[in-house]
Design goal:
This protein is an alpha/beta fold. The chain contains eleven helices and eleven strands. The structure holds NADP nicotinamide-adenine-dinucleotide phosphate.
């Protein structure tokens, strides 16, 4: 039976650091680090994510703002908005909440953000610096994953690390971070042959695919560190009972919200893994904490502060 690798303890440590550092920077510069999230449209999950980020800023003594634009926003209007934020000295971090409505070209939009304000770390320049292993802003979820691996006590150096998922925001930057940390990386995706066999060779397995409970025992080497990035809303009571038994918290979720959040990893993998992150309360809290940390980094980067 493995150990649940909870996100709260490392996330609390990062948040404490950010809170103290924000106070110190305020005393030194008289300025408060600030994050602005741009939300286009009314996607409910996106609205809830940007509000969580805004609240996290406020709790740690940072300025947090949301710019909410209508769903029919054009590329020209969005570009003007991002340029205004690029030029606004009180804004240190700019985050464009994804996904964007269909008429907007995500990669082009991300390219408009000043790289030294790119707190999501997905501007081509940020990704280039990551691949070069040069200082720069790193994507938040992959940084959170590294923090959770560190929490297990298993070193990355020399270990076989398998990542399932190759998105620009999670899988690909994570592969670069793990490579920079001297791990031996395999990236899997929907065209991978023998996914379970490949995953089962991993000392450290990271699932970032968005397929509820897809990763079962046969994907996991006994004693491995398993990090579950995926989050899917599951509303089928029979599936929930199969995965979580009579867990009263899951029953309450279903009654209150009509769904419960399930990771990519079947929670019964805890019997095989050495460590497994729960969903929710695993990777999620670290993603937010790393965003706060990146806002501080951006503040310092632009002012040339150590
Ligand atoms: P994404 O852009 O949809 O990418 C999913 C990846 O998984 C793709 O590379 C896809 O392969 C691969 N995949 C899908 N089905 C597969 C299968 N059956 N076998 C092998 N590979 C498969 O997703 P994302 O943005 O990276 O997010 C992944 C999950 O993480 C989502 O559930 C998301 O909600 C969650 N997430 C959580 C946090 C957090 O803070 N907790 C942050 C970010 C994302 P192809 O490339 O071949 O299509």
């Amino acid at each position: 039976m493995g150990v649940w690798l909870e996100g709260k303890p490392p996330a609390d440590r990062v948040r404490e650091f950010v809170k103290n550092e924000a106070q110190r920077l305020r005393a030194v510069t008289g300025a408060i680090p600030g994050l602005t999230a741009v939300l286009v449209g009314d996607n409910k999950s996106s609205l809830s994510y940007v509000r969580t980020k805004e609240k996290a800023c406020q709790a740690l003594g940072l300025n947090g703002n949301i710019i909410h634009m209508p769903v029919e926003t054009t590329m020209d209007t969005l570009r003007d908005q991002i340029r205004a934020l690029n030029d606004d000295d009180s804004v240190d971090g700019i985050l464009v909440q994804l996904p964007l409505p269909k008429q907007l070209e995500t990669n082009e939009v991300i390219g408009w953000i000043r790289p030294d304000k790119d707190v999501d770390g997905i501007h081509p320049e940020s990704l280039g610096l990551l691949v070069q292993n040069q200082p720069g802003l790193r994507p938040c979820t992959p940084m959170g994953v590294l923090e959770l691996i560190k929490e297990s006590g298993v070193p990355i150096e020399g270990r076989d690390v398998v990542i399932i998922g190759r998105s620009l925001i999670v899988g690909k930057p994570l592969a670069a971070l793990v490579t920079n940390a001297n791990g031996t990386v395999t990236i899997c995706h929907s065209k991978t042959r023998d996914l379970a066999g490949t995953a089962a060779r991993a000392d450290i397995l990271i699932a970032a695919m968005g397929k509820a409970a897809f990763v079962t025992r046969e994907f996991v080497k006994p004693g491995a560190v398993v990090i579950d990035v995926g989050t899917s809303a599951v509303s089928d009571p029979a599936t929930i009972r199969t995965l979580f038994g009579d867990d009263p918290l899951r029953a309450k979720d279903l009654a209150d919200k009509g769904y419960t959040l399930v990771g990519d990893v079947d929670p019964r993998v805890i019997d095989t893994a050495g460590w497994l992150t729960p969903v929710p309360k695993g990777v999620g809290p670290l993603t937010i904490a790393m965003l706060m940390k990146n806002t501080l980094e951006a503040f310092k980067l632009r002012r040339g502060l150590p």
